[in-house]
Amino acid sequence: MNAPRNDRFDLVVLGGGPAGVTAALRGAELGATVALVEQHRLGGTCTNDGCAPTRVLARAARFLRDATQLPAYGISAPPPTLDLRAPGGDAADGLPPAREEADGGTPGARGRRRPRPRRHRDIPGRERGRARRRRLLEADRFVIACGGHARRLDFPRQELAMTYSDIWQLERTPRSVAIVGAAATGAQLGSIFAAFGSHVTLLEVAPRILAGEDADVSAALAGAFTGHGIEVVAGIGGIRAIEQARRGLRLTYRLADGERELAVDAVVLAVGWPGNLEPLDLPAAGVATERGYVRVDETLRTSAPNIWAAGDITGRMMLVQSATFEGRVAAENALRGDGHSARHAIVAHGGFTDLEYASVGLTETQAAATGEPIAVGVVPYADLDRAVIDGRTEGFCKLVVARDGHPDPRRARGR
Amino acid sequence: MVGEQAVEVIQIAAAAMAGEVPAERLAEVEFAYPTFTAIVGLAARQVVHALRMPLDEARAWGALGRPRVAEWERREA
Q1: At the topology level of CATH, where does A5-43+96-149+274-336 sit?
Q2: Is the ipTM of this complex over 0.90?
Q3: What kind of fold does domain A158-269 have according to CATH?
Q4: What pLDDT, in 10s, does the model give residues A7-61?
Q5: Which of A386, A400, A404, A406 to mutate to test the interface with B (most CBs of B within 10 A)?
Q6: How many Å apart are CA A326 and CA A348, to the nearest integer?
Q7: Distance from CA of A411 to the nearest CA of B (A)
Q8: pLDDT tens per residue across span B20-38
Q9: Do residue B44 and residue A377 have CB atoms under 8 angstroms apart?
Q10: Can you give the pTM of this predicted structure?
């Protein structure tokens, strides 16, 4: 009953997040037999406890914020209240991808050819009672798309802090919360908690929040956050410790002129997203890693000739849209040997903070550093009629182009 | 960019980059009114304004503050 069952496929994809699901579906489109292996639920971090549920919380925050505008439009209503147990529940359950595939077997059951396998991996099956079913999958080629996880820092009592994956356990809004890390994840969580009524302190090692964004964007967000009562502390020297206090937690962090203490109900670490390497015996497969991720070349091939990788586990670009792109390219390169580049050329991204921010391409500083003469246009939202109508006049749009008008200064030279 | 619906609005800039649409062309698009996305067209027109000036003059403009354009203006002066 528990004996291994042998199955052979053209392609085995490890990981059922955006990269893995896309790779599996693309493989099936190409006519390959594909097995998709997922340890938990299809959808990965994105759907199950990542950006999609967070977007649900951001939506709740948005409703709370919009409610403050109702009187300006002649609408009277009692102030809304929040039940933190509700958002992320029913709303998140309706999110893609199609979960029926999880129980419906592997995508890509179509048969094309079944060449003699050159490699195989022994993959543990699901726990069923005391018995662990094992199933042996064999394939010519593999795509590793096992994602990542929230990083924890090494300081005394760090286990008292939550990470991104823990906030779904909260049943009520903490009165005060310190968020360590003010890149995209930390900034978004801080904005949401502030809208929910928490007193938020954002702590960031970099000299400014959202350090990867245009400096003007960082400054505008910092100003907006401060306006919402968020305390923004950039340029800290790190966290010294967390201690259990009589009521809540005491967080000690370093500044250039000494240490500071914060008394808070909760601490959230948003300090990085290393790859899920531990469950995989990658050295046995000849797959090299570096800095916590699977090493790949520009075609997403790993150091093992028959294994490709895609998504967060490559450490290249921690975005769903980029993981999806990589999953598609990895499957095509694995199955067709196309050798297509997976260079991330145009990546639109942003955060559902209050104010929202977004960007694509180079920042003004990066564009200037290319040496290509540039032109910059900046329009405040206050100049936009729709923003005035909607009572949302904060913000600006900055457009940076090469002086020959090309939208991407990196590619303007030589036109 | 920063502001209402920024994550939606940025998509038009990404599409313009993918299509290698020059700023002059983007500035001529008749975006629906009143929309947030139209701010990309306003920014493009401001860029075109700067591009039509010699570099030194554009820098001087920058020092004076960037010119403002009304949304319903059809063309640069």
Answers
A1: FAD/NAD(P)-binding domain (3.50.50)
A2: no
A3: FAD/NAD(P)-binding domain (3.50.50)
A4: 899 999 999 999 999 999 999 999 999 999 998 888 888 777 777 888 889 999 9
A5: A386
A6: 15
A7: 9
A8: 999 999 999 999 999 999 9
A9: yes
A10: 0.85
